[in-house]
């Protein structure tokens, strides 16, 4: 049975073409804010809000431009709504992440969850799926095999980001774990149950998104989410190693998220060289 796709109208229709440059502007603004974050000591709510809102907007606008408005709405509903539900259940029951509580540091809450949290799911779910599709495409998989690998690898790609995110947010007092052990080597105070929960939620989220969001309509349309993922990787390694006083998190995260980011970088460099070679012929 063929999966339903929400690509909508052709991605390069005149009505949405302008959204791609705007997505780049939002991504550039995100990078600027994130550079300022450690330089100003971090922990300020306005910078945190700006970073999350800008990147979530960039992801959503990019989807609207390349796959249609329906795909963008699907991202908001599945990643944002799904993330809110998962987090609300987690805060209330301890499943699937473990027992934790949000402080008031991230602002307004809905169902015990800061509004910024589902926005964070939105901002990275699309980059995680986009880069996973790049990797799966390089494996030359198709059909059911591609779907299965995309679901598992996409869940890993999204969860790997939290190896950096969770220690940063805990250190800044935005949430706290009741039982922080056992934990990953080098990632103290974050329980393994958190990452198990992330893998479960991310697997469900990526599986559904992969079904309803169409594949690339043009060969290089996904540069925005790919750049976002690679920037997140390299900037997170640098921030934890130099600014946040967490060199062991930088090392562990570099290895875990690098499983996705480094092969992706190789693919992108080769693709760029191929394009330049083709243009010169």
What do these coordinates show?
With 281 residues, this protein is mainly α. The chain has one domain (19-275). It is 70% helix and 4% strand. The chain has helices spanning 19-39, 45-66, 69-93, 116-138, 143-171, 192-212, 223-243, 247-280, and strands at 100-102, 109-110, 113-114, 175-177. The strands form two sheets. It has a two-stranded antiparallel ribbon with strand order 1-4. A two-stranded antiparallel sheet has the order 2-3. A hairpin with a 2-residue loop joins strand 2 (109-110) and strand 3 (113-114). Helix 2 (45-66) crosses helix 4, helix 5 packs across helix 6 (192-212) and helix 7 (223-243) packs antiparallel against helix 8 (247-280). The chain is globular and about 55 Å long. The model is unreliable at 7-15 (pLDDT under 50). Keywords: Membrane, Transmembrane, Transmembrane helix. The chain crosses the membrane at residues 19-39, 45-64, 71-91, 111-132, 144-164, 195-214, 226-243, 249-267. This is Putative membrane protein.
Write the layout of secondary structure elements.
Blueprint: H1 19-39, H2 45-66, H3 69-93, E1 100-102, E2 109-110, E3 113-114, H4 116-138, H5 143-171, E4 175-177, H6 192-212, H7 223-243, H8 247-280
Antiparallel strand pairs: 1-4, 2-3
Helix pairs in contact: 1-2, 1-7, 2-3, 2-4, 3-4, 3-6, 4-5, 4-6, 4-7, 4-8, 5-6, 5-7, 5-8, 7-8
